[in-house]
Amino acid sequence: STQSTWEFLERSICIQRNSHSTKMGKFLKQGKVVICLQGRYAGKKAVIVKNYDDGTNKRPYGHAVVVGIDKYPRRVKRGMSKKIIAKRSTIKPFIKVINYNHVMPTRYGITDIDFKTVVNTEALTDRSTRTAARKECQKLLQERYLSNKNSWFFNKLRF
């Protein structure tokens, strides 16, 4: 009888293990703020524009198209002239296709800026469309910065 109860327990444990899904939830979605970990933009904050969890033919690994801030706006003080304030408030963005292993997700998200209309796969193919897309992203980010929303996104990461 002890043998049969032992077999019963083993079977029930196997059933429990197989009944649970081993898939992990998708959390690297559009609008998620990430921090780049490798390369030229290491330590810079970025927003996911489009994610490819399963990869593509050209890139057979999980990756995402991100728009981030290369040069953050500098500190502005009360005594500065409007010209200096305008210059110090400029943002230099970057657009990049980046491997999931090279980004760290944060708990933050920016969903109300629609980069998807500006940045797409055609915009990343040649240099002129890429620079045009970067300028459009700069306008969108500049607007957001001057409206004083998501101020944590526009602060340089200190580490």
Which percent band covers the strand fraction? Answer: 15-25%
Q: How would you sum up the global shape? A: elongated
Mean pLDDT: 86
**Rg:** 22 Å
Tally of contiguous helical segments: 3
Parts with pLDDT < 50 across at least 5 consecutive residues: none
Question: What is this structure's SSE topology?
Answer:
Layout: H1 2-19, E1 32-36, E2 45-52, E3 63-71, H2 82-88, E4 92-99, E5 103-109, H3 127-146
Antiparallel strand pairs: 1-2, 1-5, 2-3, 3-4
Account of the 3D structure:
It is a single chain. The protein has 159 residues and is α+β, with helices and mostly antiparallel strands. It is 28% helix and 23% strand. It has helices at 2-19, 82-88, 127-146, and strands at 32-36, 45-52, 63-71, 92-99, 103-109. The protein has a five-stranded antiparallel sheet with strand order 4-3-2-1-5, covered by helices on one side. Strand 1 (32-36) and strand 2 form a beta hairpin. It is elongated, with a radius of gyration of 22 Å.
Keywords:
elongated, 5-stranded antiparallel β-sheet, 159 residues, 28% helix, alpha+beta
Could you write a compact summary of the structure shown?
This protein is 28% helix and 23% strand.
